[in-house]
Amino acid sequence: MATTPHRAAPREFADLPYAHRLEAFTGELGRDGDHECVHFDGCDVTDADAGRTAFLECAFSSVAFEGGRYRRARFTDVWAQQTRWVGTDLAETEWTDAEAGAGLLAGVELHGARLRRVVFHHCKFDSVNLRATGLRDVTFVDCLLRDVDFAGAALKGVAFPGTTLERVRFDNVTVDGADLSGAAALGITSGLASLRGAVISGLQLVELAPALAETVGLTVKEG
């Protein structure tokens, strides 16, 4: 799947090239599973142990994941709409050519994960651990990122058009082409010095000026 333009509209279920091949999910999720062309629709999945499970060309519609362990699971060419992940362990997972819309991630562990060509539309991230993740060609469109920790992450080709950042941490990140200029708000708690190479707007520069001055040790004296 080609990289989605920053503000392209999210796809509908019927737009998926594999929609006609999807089969309804039955049974339970377990470790080392292999799910191809499966439609998870209206499911409530609680405390599943599904580490190393592979999801290929799958769709998730109005699914609620409560808790559970999915470490090292792989999500390839997946689509999710109105899907909730709450208190879920998604550490070291791999996401490739994925799209999520109107979703929620709250108290989720994503540290060490790898995301490539992933688009989030109108999603809410609340207290999500993205430490040491690798994000390449990832776009957050009109999202809310609150208390999200990117410490030690590698950001390459990442963009935040229309997205609000609140109390977000970027300590020791590696930046290659990250674009923050379209963000609706830049509430960055720490790690400004690590954003060397990122793109911001002139207005954002003015708003960040006090924090930047403090970061480099400048004292601002009036008059």
Automatic annotation (TrEMBL):
InterPro entries: 5peptide_repeat. Gene3D superfamilies: E3 ubiquitin-protein ligase SopA. This is Pentapeptide repeat-containing protein. It comes from the Bacteria. Keywords: Repeat.
